[in-house]
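Q: Mind making up any chain with structure tokens?
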Amino acid sequence: MNGLEVVKIVELIGSSPKDWEDATKNALAEATKTIKNIKSVYVKRCNAKVEKNKIIEYRAVVKIAFVVERKIS
């Protein structure tokens, strides 16, 4: 990162019936649909939805960092 870059961070929740890694990948995949220049993903927290004593949904709360595009005049 040079001195002219600005990084923004957004927080998202990804989910998956498979596992936390897949939940993280799903959050990132959704972010890439509208965000450019993604540089990192940080897994802040993982949790799961339980029904009848079984995990039915894995959730990953993630922070996604990306470089803000700006025109330098």
Observations:
- The helical segments are 20-31.
